[in-house]
Design brief:
- It is built from eight helices and no strands.
- By secondary structure, it is an all-alpha fold.
- The protein has one domain (about 40-260).
- Helix 1 (about 1-35) packs across helix 5 (about 140-175).
- It is elongated.
- The relative contact order is 0.15.
Length: about 270
């Protein structure tokens, strides 16, 4: 009976152990980023440009398509039933700025840059390059994890602004397609948008980047089992990153709405 219970709870125990290890890696990464020396400048620039080059086009297509489809076409169809298609701009404050822009950014960055990051570190791990660095007295966290951590945080915060702009462009396309004037769209959009919406979106998206970086670096640095193990680590990194992003988004959104109840109403 005891062995059956142990086998039943083994996945949960392993998951909790991985979460704890990721939290420890987060602490080591933050302390290494603050504590001198700072040898990771070139690697940071390289990882930033790498993520920028890989993600900008998928993000552009995804943000326009997602905002054109879900809140755009469906939103204006629903609002037209009540004779209020001019309220679409206010709806886009909730969808584009608060939710879809950070979510799409996190998904694209995790699915494109995060997977490449996991594969790179996983390949180094199975070739024992990480062990060789430690033998030489080089800290893999400071020299490999920190630049990727900072690069993803910066690139996701910048991409969030990019996603908001192209997300709103999707709403503009829907408005023009339905033959509605743009003035009411922008009037309700600007009337409902606030500084809190923008900084909340930026902070949330920056932390999404941090979660993605930690998960992907951890799974890459703990990969084992050759090429098959690296592929398994990449798959697990994406799934865990999405779960972490969704979980944090729920907590962050509920906290933000609780502290700023005026965001619950459309004007």
């Amino acid at each position: 009976m005891a062995s059956v219970v142990n086998r039943a709870f083994e996945p949960a125990r392993e998951s909790l152990a991985e979460v704890g290890s990721m939290m420890l890696l987060t602490g080591r990464t933050v302390s290494s980023a603050i504590r001198p020396p700072y040898p990771y400048g070139p690697e940071f620039v390289g990882q930033f440009l790498f993520a920028l080059r890989l993600c900008w086009l998928p993000l552009l297509i995804s943000t326009v398509a997602v905002n054109f489809g879900a809140p755009g076409l469906q939103g204006i169809s629903f609002l037209s039933l009540f004779g209020a298609p001019d309220r679409l701009g206010g709806l886009f404050v909730i969808t584009a700025i608060r939710e879809f822009a950070p979510f799409v950014t996190a998904i694209v960055v995790a699915g494109v840059a995060g997977t490449a990051m996991t594969a790179d570190l996983g390949a180094r791990k199975i070739r024992e390059e990480l062990d060789a660095l430690q033998v030489l007295g080089v800290d893999p966290v400071k020299n490999l994890v920190v630049p990727r951590f900072l690069a993803l945080m910066v690139v996701t915060s910048l991409f969030d602004i990019y996603a908001v702009l192209f997300g709103v462009a999707g709403g503009i396309l829907v408005t023009l397609m339905y033959g509605e004037p743009l003035a009411p769209f922008f009037a309700t959009f600007l009337n409902n948008a606030s500084v809190t919406d923008l900084w909340g979106s930026l902070i949330k998206c920056t932390i999404f980047g941090a979660i993605t970086a930690i998960v992907c670096c951890y799974k890459g640095m703990t990969a084992s089992g050759g090429a098959e193990g690296v592929g398994r680590a990449v798959n697990q990194a994406v799934v865990i990153a999405f779960i972490g992003v969704f979980s944090f988004n729920y907590v962050f959104t509920q906290t933000l709405l609780a502290t700023h109840p005026e965001m619950l109403s459309l004007r």
